[in-house]
Structure formats: C-alpha cells, structure tokens
Amino acid sequence: xxxxxxxxVVGVVVIGAVAAAGAWAKAGGTSGTQNQPPARIATSTAxxxxxxxxxxxxxxxxxTHAGSYNLIAPGGQGVLTRLPTEGTVVDRGATAYExxxxxxxxxxxxxxxxxxxxxxxxxGADVRALERNLVALGHGAGVTVDRHFSSATYWAVRHWQHxxxxxxxxxxxxxxxxxxPGPLRVAALDAKTGTPxxxxxxxxxxxxxxxxxxxxxxxxxxxxxxxxxxxxxxMPDGNPLRARVTHVSAVAVNQQxxxxxxxxxxxxxxxxxxxxxPRGGSAGxxxxxxxxxxxxxxxxxxxxxxxxxxxxxxxxxxxxGGAYEVVVVGSGxxxxxxxxxxxxxDETAGVVEVxxxxxxxxxxxxxxxxxx
Length: 372
Description:
Shape: elongated
Strand content: 35-45%
Distance between the termini: 32 Å
Low-confidence stretches: 1-23, 25-33
Number of strands: 22
Helix content: 10-25%
Oligomer: single chain
Largest sheet: 6 strands, antiparallel, barrel
Number of helices: 4
C-alpha cells in the first residue's frame, strides 16, 4: 500500500470511514449470536469513476481584510468636526472625515494628492486619477480621462462640488479630498473631533473591504501552495468556501507556533488567500462577511493524481492483513468481490483512488445506503 502523508483530521475521517465500511460488511454477512438472524444493512450502489484525486493538508488560518491603509490629512487647516465610526466602510465619494463642517470625500488613487487641482496646472498622473473619479461618480460629461486639467475637467469639478455640498469653485485645493487605492474599512481612529487638522495629521487607519484569509505554512508544505492554486476554506460553522491563493511569501518568518507562545519560534511561510465570489446564496459567505479575525481551516492540495479510477471511501471493505476490496454489482444484482489497492484519499470529495483486477470506469460498487 503506498505511503500517504495526510493531515490528522483527514486520517481520522478515512480510518473511520474504512472501519465503518468493514462494520457494515460484517453486519451483513455474519450473525451476532446463534439464536439471532444476521443483521442486514441496507445498501445501494455508486459508480466507479475516472477523475482527479487530491490529497489535502489541513492548516489553520485567520479570516481578515486585505491591505493596510493610513489616512493622512494632505493639507488644509481647520477643526476636525466629524469622524466615521470604527467598522465603517468608506467608498468612493463618501465622507472620510469632516473639517469645519465640510466633508472630505475619499477618491480612489494610488498616490496622495500633493498639489492643488486647477486650470493651468501642469499635466500629471494625479489629474488622470481625479478625472477617473469624477467620471465614476457620474460627473464626467465631456471629460477625457488623461493627464490634462481641461475646461471640461473644471466644469466636472464644479458639478461634483455642488452635489457633494462643497464650496463650488472649479478647483480642488489640497486637503479637499483624500486618495486611497480603494474603499477604506475603518479599523481605528487616530484623531479626535474638536482637534485642529494640519497637513500630515493622522486621521484614521484601516484595511480594504476585501475579505481574505491569512495563514502560515510549514516550509515543507509551502512548495505545494502556489499563486492561483484552488483551495477550500472551511468556516467556523462548517460551511466550505472555494478560494484561491493570491500570494505566497518568498521569505519564511520566525513565529511562535499557534497555541504555544512559550515554545521556541519556528520559520513559517505567510500566504494570503482570497474567497471566490459566491454563486447565489451562501451561508458560509454570509458568515464570512459578518466575522473578523475568526479562525478557519484551509485544505491545501499536497498531492494530486489525475485521471485515475476512484470509488466512494465507504465502498472500501477492510480485510485481514491490511487488505481491501470492493463489491462490484453487475447486471441482475450479481456480486463480485474485487481486491483493490487504495491510493490517495480525497476526504473533501469523499472518494479514494483504487486499482484492482477487472475494475473499470462505469461499473457499480456496493456502498451503505445513506437513507437507511
């Protein structure tokens, strides 16, 4: 039987399944006492399939948010009159904070504003970012998104300022808007209302609104996790979610093992995983939106055998000496016991790779009836 390196949870499930399979087989073929008829276990059949079988390692992870952003006042003077509450998600055009009773909206851009926007200014990437936001907010009629602050940009700014409740000037002085790469989920406030605002003042900080899972892998397992790989994330309520590896650190970091803060540190490889967008309703997805810093389990493929024969794990019957067999059910209900050599166990899919004489795709094998 080939050597298999599986996670403890997988091993327990597989052993339990095989033991259960053996138990139902014996219950159907022998009597408990001489005075009682043998117990009969209801059975059904399942197909022998040719498929990809994956062996997975289970590792712990933490549900969190991507990114780390600090919102710094880019300019202007005044008194901080309003702040968002912690946990608020500030989207494009929404108020990041308020100075002297005027909102300071959030625009999306990779660079903070460093100069005033006005007719006659030199061309630049910051102008393009401003115009993209004006267009996205529905104020870009006639605007060509480029590096040039044109007369169309001027009128678009005026329309936006009027809609946002700002002084309508057609210019955007430094400090009237702030730029971040995307929506800001406010984690904590760095200033208090009633305090003066000055350029460079820390206002608030947080993350993006994108949910991710952060984990640390043993260096021996890290080569099995590559950017773009599919993984399964199991939520605290047991619901599995499809996900994808988006980042694998090239550097191992010395960290304390989880649950053992007194022990020596060990090198671990940080990885980031993003959850797939749901198709229809998903209880697990709703829980993912509601929770933060929750512990989850990640199933990472450690081995993959493609296009192999597989049967349900419960079709395996344990026999003396560590051997296994399946019961092939032919036409008319004729049964044939076929010795098999198990390969990889795929606990997530509930199947096991098998090889056996005369075993072919499309045959039916006996399994316990799940409705019995």
